[in-house]
């Protein structure tokens, strides 16, 4: 089980800072890098490096420290994974890099990770992982968020949805357009509906076009990601008839 290793980590951690700098690392295991900060987009995969020289018979572990100095979760020991989350794996890169890989990151993965060497007391470095939260907005020609949009009858609705801070091609997410609760992406009942989505490295631009609009085309139009439907953008479209102009 991982209990002995966890107890060892907890017991030794409080004394680590007192002793770590008194060891001459030239004569034992030591890190080739320093603590670092990494920022990635939601949906992407990330690799946390941990290069160690002169490891000898010591063991390398990755743990995750909860916020405010809370409990620590053991992720890997040596080349074995101890977390039930299959997105976490250890990938040893010869000759000295004990890399922690996290697939399809989301906001819950944000926080502090520690790579540890099982010396007495243990040595460690931190990697602080920050996740860019996805942004979904329906915008006007100047890129400002839209709340209401007015169209004349028989004109064409054109709405632009801008998605940022998510690796769309990795996430396999789709930009979805709705009128009320009705999905428009593959709608063939009305006719004249077009959805064009351009994927890019950090998001997507999606344009909804509806030709020859009438009063029944008024209402709320929503742009959302199929993988994150709880973060939609909505605009209220008003179709004006000739009498109101």
TrEMBL record:
Q: Which Pfam families match?
A: I-set
Question: GO CC annotations?
Answer: neuron projection membrane
One of its GO biological process terms is: synapse organization
Superkingdom in the source lineage? Eukaryota
Q: Where is the signal peptide?
A: none
Occurrences of domain Ig-like (ranges): 29-118, 134-236
The UniProt entry, under Gene3D superfamilies, shows: Immunoglobulins
- Membrane spanning stretches: none
Q: Which PANTHER family match?
A: DEFECTIVE PROBOSCIS EXTENSION RESPONSE 14, ISOFORM A-RELATED, DEFECTIVE PROBOSCIS EXTENSION RESPONSE DPR -RELATED
Q: What is this protein called?
A: Limbic system-associated membrane protein
């Amino acid at each position: 089980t991982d209990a002995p290793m966890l107890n060892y980590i907890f017991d030794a951690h409080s004394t680590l800072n007192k002793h770590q700098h008194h060891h001459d690392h030239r004569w034992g295991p030591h890190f080739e890098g320093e603590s670092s900060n990494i920022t990635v987009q939601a949906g992407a995969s990330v690799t946390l490096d941990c290069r160690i020289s002169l490891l000898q018979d010591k063991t390398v572990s990755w743990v995750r420290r909860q916020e405010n100095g809370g409990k620590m979760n053991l992720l890997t020991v040596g080349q074995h994974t101890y977390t039930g989350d299959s997105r976490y794996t250890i990938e040893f890169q010869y000759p000295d890099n004990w890399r922690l890989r996290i697939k399809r990151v989301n906001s819950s993965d944000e926080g502090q990770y520690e790579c540890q060497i099982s010396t007495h007391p243990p040595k460690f470095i931190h990697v602080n992982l920050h996740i860019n939260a996805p942004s979904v907005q329906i915008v006007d020609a100047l890129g400002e968020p839209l709340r209401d949009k007015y169209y004349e009858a028989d004109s064409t609705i054109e709405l632009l949805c801008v998605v940022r801070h998510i690796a769309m091609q990795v996430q396999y997410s789709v930009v979805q357009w709705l009128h009320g609760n009705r999905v428009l992406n593959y709608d063939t009942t009305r006719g004249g509906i077009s959805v064009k989505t351009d994927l890019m490295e950090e998001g997507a631009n999606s344009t909804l076009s509806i030709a020859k609009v009438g009063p029944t085309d008024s209402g709320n139009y929503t742009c959302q990601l199929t993988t994150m439907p709880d973060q939609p953008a909505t605009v209220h479209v008003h179709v004006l008839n000739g009498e109101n102009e």
